[in-house]
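PROTOCOL LOG
Step 1. Enter all chains and additional molecules of the complex.
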Amino acid sequence: MKRNNILKILLFASYFIFLLVAWLTGFNPGQQIGYNFGSFTADMLKILPGAFILIGLFEVWVKRETVERHLGEEAGVKSYLWVILLSGTTVGGLYLAFPVAYALYSKGARLSVIFTYLGAAAICRIPMAIFEASFLGIKFTAIRWLVSLPLVILTSILLGNYLTRRGYKLSAGE
Amino acid sequence: MYYLYIVAGLALLVSLIASRGKTVRALKIAARRLIRILPAFLIMLILVSVVLYLVPDELISRYLGSDNKFTAMALASLLGSITVMPGFIAFPLAGILVQKGVAYMVIAAFTTTLMMVGMLTAPIEKAYFGLKVTIIRNVIGFFIALAVAVMIGLFFGEIFP
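Step 2. Run joint prediction.
Step 3. Record the structure below.
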């Protein structure tokens, strides 16, 4: 773990030194990369605080029993419907679905439900689907949902059950 | 993005009215979780900035327009796996490609792997799920994307014209 951290810091340092040198010497690829980094970082900084505030409020206010009853080991097939609806509201990109998935998991949602949430967050975000349908047509979006959603649920159940049997646990994000 | 802050702001306000103590605790949890995952986000941003430089839009357009639909589909699914692109760029690009005559199944392979397979978000996924599960999940996503592309090809009459 220690060595890993040192490697990370070295990576960050050399990356930023590269950007600085590129900026000073006018090295075009480096400037381009720096520009990409800046614009994506700005996008992300706009979303992250809002999203994590919601995660914090969820942790404090939503009871563990509520999540367990609807999304836990004993909950039925309806859990998949709930998380797919929840995934439709995901903002930003998949990178925000992971901390949300962890929050659900820490409140007792079962693994197959977590994986369904991640899969559905990738393919069924409502704002994105509207955008997609307007450029590629409703038929395209409809086929994509009808093919991918059942496969997402099926593979999530298989993967979730397999990992549950093996005693798999998520970590808090290290 | 505005509606996220409208929702977060309202939720915070309601929470504050209901209980000051709990709201402070929620904000502390929010800050702690965010700080813990920031290094993984930084790695993702570094990867994104480099990959976007190496794989510009023109390159994607060129490869997706390849004459053989199946070669194009394979290339599209690989490109979709290694890049990230926000929907508001990807779908207009897809729309343009369709007008240029690129097959729908190629577009489907590209956009679906773009959404489901995240080589670049892997640092974040790995921080929560570990390397093994991250790989399994992304490989599954890749095959689901191929299944979607093939079905799109069938329904749009591109595989059996």
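Step 4. Note key features.
The radius of gyration of chain B is 20 Å.
Chain B has a mean pLDDT of 91.
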